[in-house]
Write a structure and sequence with these properties.
This protein is an alpha+beta fold. It contains one helix and four strands, in the order E-H-E-E-E. Helix content is 13%, strand content 28%.
Amino acid sequence: MEEENDIKIDISKHEFVPKHELLSDKESEKLLKELGVTRLQLPKILKKDRAIHHLKAKRGDIIKITRNSKTAGKAIYYRVVI
């Protein structure tokens, strides 16, 4: 829980923070089916992670992370919120 005197900064706007998107339930189910995995098998991200704070994600939600890479162009990762 944040303290009242905490500075409110949206780090999702910082140039070094990759784009984080909350997948809908339908998108999440489709992704899990395509990858042949369960939510438990995905890498984790904490609900309190500042990079997803603005998404209002809840436990079990899946976050799509898009990173720009000089060698790969765009690299997409998925994390489940814990």
